TrEMBL record:
Organism: Gadus morhua
Main location per the UniProt record: membrane
Protein name per its UniProtKB record: E3 ubiquitin-protein ligase TM129
Higher taxonomy: Eukaryota, Metazoa, Chordata, Craniata, Vertebrata
GO function term, MF aspect, one: ubiquitin protein ligase activity
Listed transmembrane segments: 6-22, 58-79, 91-114
GO cellular component, one term: endoplasmic reticulum
GO biological process terms held by the UniProt record: protein ubiquitination
Amino acid sequence: MESPDVTFTLAYIVFTFCFVFTPNEFRSAGLTVQNLFSSWLGSEDIGFIQYHVKRSSLTLLVHSSIPLGYYAGMCIAAPEKNLPYINQVSAGWQAFLGLSLCLQLLSVGLIFYWSRCRWSNHPISRALQVHTGPQWAGWGAVATSINTEFRRIDKFASGAPGARVIVTDTWVMKVTTYYVHVAQQTDAHLTVTESRQHQMSPDSGTPTQTLTLRVASINQAVNPFDIRLMSTEYSELREKLHAPIRSAANVVIHQTINDRFLDTFRAQADLNQPYLLPSEMEVELCIGCMQVPAGAKLIRLCCEEGYDSGSECRQCFCRPMWCLSCLGRWFSSRQDQDRPETWLASSVPCPTCRSKFCILDVCLVR
């Protein structure tokens, strides 16, 4: 039978590994720095930058106390070693305790230095200072811009709390354990550098693909960083970015059937006859996403010369109310998911008036 100190050591190593790298089981149980100190950290939605400044500092403080916690635990797990009495323990344990205390004091001193001048010395604050200019007078103004855009519902967010990827209208960010990487969209260039195929996903039980993208900025003060996301999230990320994403020559991105259909749906709409908006008509936001102007109009074109006259399609008299992406998602959602080969030739009811239309009837608003 193993001695209590060996058992405690193995258990403490496992606990420390899980606490630092946080698997889903620990996160579900609330054993994270964010959950344990949520009352002090506040809300991420109210002040994103302030929240992560405090979270990263607190995480450093907690992680630096792990060796000291091991020594305190060994005082209880192995009382025969007389660890509470420093003058009676071996030189090895005295050195371990001394290093643990030095590490704890060093982290306290570092956090105190960061907190001076309203946390302007913190690494996250310094990362924001490189984006100051005519538009933002100081790092506080940059933080306010990020906080405001993070509260919007149209942001792109992916990943676990310790490795999140967040894209807003102006910023590309990656949240890590002790830091937040920030790049401005207008200055950033994204390149898909690697793709990994996984035979089984622990969440869905199906094969998945993970993409690695390199975020580089023309601002020399911003260090490049890598972000990772699932290939199924790639199209959503691409829609949120203002600039196109480049891909390395050897990288193949496997999109879902719905993503590939949306690309085909958009390509066919570009080929169809456009709808010229009357001057007295105003375009409102798409009622599906409420994010972009309604850019699609349904006009029965499949009955014209060269198309099947026996079509079930009917003329739709609705004004433009949907964007092309939402209309394409509606079209694919009404299809037989087991027979994607029939999608392009089928027809679905208009989401507003229920008049049937096909892909040839979708016109872009000009």
